[in-house]
């Protein structure tokens, strides 16, 4: 309960009432108006004496929190400075009121926080606002009596605003309600303030759009053209949204161009769009920007309009080497059991053949190496050169072939399925990219370089200094087309905005490469916001327009149109075009080459051995035969 009372107290509307002592001061008018407008705190400023000030306080403080000041007080405008809502009601019958209003405009007191009520006894009050700086966001209302002869006094309440005082707009008045002593207040304003002020009569506002990538042709023709949406994407999207608000409020615009969003220079000022807003060269930005603490000091942020999605894109590297691919189809325990079974079969087959040789003489090689070759040949589906005669030997041979067939089928099927299936993704973070064999690149754009120079994220800094940073700090910052071309070749990770990358991938990548693509975000998704001058009178106006576009679905349609969708992986094309390359097959060739090399070496040793043996035999013949003769 106390928290609710505290929040209501913070939301108090501070109300300033400037009034004369000409007899027009009517406490019932003030109390009724404050009640209708939900105002809790009133400051009354008028051209009256201290005695009259005390009299007003006694009448109103019993029901309201009231303070009374004199219009002739020195530096009275300083009392209007507030961070909360402050309203001003002015009676045009006081001397010096016109000057007071003019100074209020120069101090920017006709804004969203200040609520003004001007009390006057005449209908000739329009001259009070000549050369007064007010804008479309002003909350100024005037109450004056109508000419009538009845006993009931009637009053008219009118609102006053200017579409843009600094851009040549004209002061406009419209009726918002009535008051009489019998019925009180009757407000006819049923629509929001900005709906009633939609027609800005074509005043010209200045804006700037950021286009970092060069274009051909005229600026406005390029911005209105919807082709090549992957270039300067979110800047052109934002320009289209602001153009819809332009038609909504009926104003014209003067568009200038910049190549950067706005970063601090050595002298402390900003360049680009933020710098133009800081120097008040433009009224609002037609490109969204990131929310940064240094920018918040010189510009005012509006509604979020775009979410920037960027990531490292790479082809998923194979988690297994080619040698592991040949071994993986069977687990280590199966390989061990197969080896044990082969040794057991060698022993049993040799025992059977030895027993046959003792009972039925056959000229058969009984060496262990011969039986090893026979068993390996059977396991590799090459057959055997011997056929046992005894039943025991044939049973061993039969189960040997059956065992070899099962192992061969399981191995072949598992090997093929291992080659066909999608390899698991082992790279899941920036640290994994840093530790991997992938080369790294980044889209060459201002905010990427700015991020790496100022980030305190340890994985990002580690990746930047170990892999991304090159000679002159530019070797690995590439255009999107070049970076994605390297991604297509494999073993390369490229950081790029996804809205730019997806159309290029769809045009240039093969289907199997698309299916292998993976993404890792370097930082969380960042929101981009509209931007205005500090304390801009147009901020609320554009926020309401953009909210309306979101509610009716236009903003969703624009986002869907400008944001490229991720290319789909078509599995059928991937399996239909599957090929085995040397990367997968080279272990078999290496094994064959190793066997050939071993056989050649052993052959040379055998030739050397037999040559030496033959030479020794000849020497024996030379020494022995003469004596025999």
CATH T-level fold name of the domain at 8-196: Rossmann fold
Low-pLDDT runs: 1-16, 18-23
- The mean pLDDT is 83
Please report the distance between the alpha carbons of the first and last residues.
137 Å
Oligomer: single chain
> Spatial order of the strands in the main sheet?
5-6-7-8-9
Gross CATH architecture of the domain at 8-196:
3-Layer(aba) Sandwich
Broad shape: rod-shaped
**Helix share of residues?**
40-55%
Strand count, sense and barrel status of the largest sheet are: 5 strands, mixed
Number of strands: 20
Portion in strands: 15-25%
- Give the helix tally: 23
- CATH C-level label of the domain at 8-196: Alpha Beta
Class inferred from helices and paired strands: alpha/beta
Task: Identify the notable features of this structure and list them briefly.
disordered N terminus, 19% strand, 23 helices, Helix Hairpins, alpha/beta, five-stranded mixed β-sheet, Rossmann fold, 629 residues
């Amino acid at each position: 309960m106390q928290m609710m009372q505290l929040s209501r107290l913070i939301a108090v509307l501070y109300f300033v009432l400037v009034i004369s002592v000409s007899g027009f001061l009517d406490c019932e008018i003030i109390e009724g108006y404050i009640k209708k407008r939900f105002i809790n705190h009133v400051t009354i400023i008028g051209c009256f004496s201290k005695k009259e000030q005390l009299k007003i306080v006694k009448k109103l403080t019993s029901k309201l929190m009231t303070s009374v000041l004199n219009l002739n007080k020195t530096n009275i405008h300083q009392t209007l400075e507030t961070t909360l809502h402050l309203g001003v009601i002015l009676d045009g019958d006081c001397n010096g009121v016109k000057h007071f209003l003019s100074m209020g405009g120069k101090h920017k007191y006709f804004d969203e926080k200040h609520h003004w009520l001007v009390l006057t006894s005449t209908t000739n009050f329009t001259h009070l606002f000549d050369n007064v700086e007010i804008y479309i966001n002003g909350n100024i209302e005037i109450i004056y009596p109508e000419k009538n002869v009845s006993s009931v006094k009637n009053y008219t309440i009118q609102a006053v605003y200017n579409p843009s005082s600094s851009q040549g707009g004209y002061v406009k008045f419209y009726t918002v309600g009535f008051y009489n002593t019998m019925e009180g207040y009757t407000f006819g304003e049923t629509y929001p303030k900005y709906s009633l002020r939609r027609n800005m009569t074509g005043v010209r506002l200045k804006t700037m759009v950021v286009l970092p990538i060069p274009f051909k042709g005229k600026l406005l023709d390029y911005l209105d053209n919807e082709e090549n949406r992957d270039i300067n994407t979110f800047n052109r999207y934002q320009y289209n949204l602001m153009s819809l608000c332009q038609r909504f409020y009926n104003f014209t615009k003067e568009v200038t161009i910049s190549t950067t969003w706005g970063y601090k220079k050595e002298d402390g000022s900003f360049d680009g769009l933020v710098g133009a807003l800081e120097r008040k060269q433009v009224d609002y930005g037609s490109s969204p920007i990131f929310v940064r603490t240094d920018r918040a000091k010189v510009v005012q942020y509006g509604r979020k309009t775009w979410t920037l999605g960027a990531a490292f894109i790479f082809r998923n590297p194979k988690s297994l080497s080619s040698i592991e691919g040949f071994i993986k189809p069977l687990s280590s325990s199966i390989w061990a059991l197969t080896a044990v079974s082969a040794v057991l079969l060698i022993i049993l087959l040799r025992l059977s053949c030895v027993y046959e040789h003792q009972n039925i003489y056959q000229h058969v090689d009984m060496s262990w190496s011969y039986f090893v070759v026979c068993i390996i040949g059977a396991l590799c589906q090459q057959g055997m050169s011997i056929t046992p005669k005894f039943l025991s030997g044939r049973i061993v041979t039969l189960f040997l072939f059956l065992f070899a067939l099962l192992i061969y089928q399981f191995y072949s099927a598992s090997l093929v399925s291992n080659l066909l299936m999608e390899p698991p993704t082992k790279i899941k973070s920036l640290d994994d990219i840093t530790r991997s064999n992938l080369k790294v690149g980044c889209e060459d754009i201002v905010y990427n370089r700015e991020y790496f120079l100022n980030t305190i994220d340890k994985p990002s800094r580690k990746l930047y200094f170990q892999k991304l940073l090159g000679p002159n700090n530019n070797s690995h910052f590439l255009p999107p087309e070049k970076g994605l071309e390297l991604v297509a070749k494999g073993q390369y990770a490229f950081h790029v905005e996804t809205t730019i990358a997806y159309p290029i991938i769809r045009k240039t990548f093969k289907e199997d490469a698309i299916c292998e693509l993976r993404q890792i975000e370097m930082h969380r998704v960042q929101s981009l916001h509209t931007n205005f001058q500090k304390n801009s009178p147009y901020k609320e106006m554009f926020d309401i327009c953009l909210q309306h576009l979101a509610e009716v679905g236009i903003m969703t349609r624009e986002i869907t149109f400008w944001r490229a969708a991720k290319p789909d992986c078509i599995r059928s094309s991937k399996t239909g075009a599957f090929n085995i390359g040397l990367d997968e097959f080279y272990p078999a060739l290496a094994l064959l080459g190793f066997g050939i090399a071993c056989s050649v070496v052993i052959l040379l040793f055998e030739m050397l051995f037999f040559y030496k043996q033959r030479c020794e035999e000849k020497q024996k013949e030379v020494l022995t035969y003469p004596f025999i003769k």
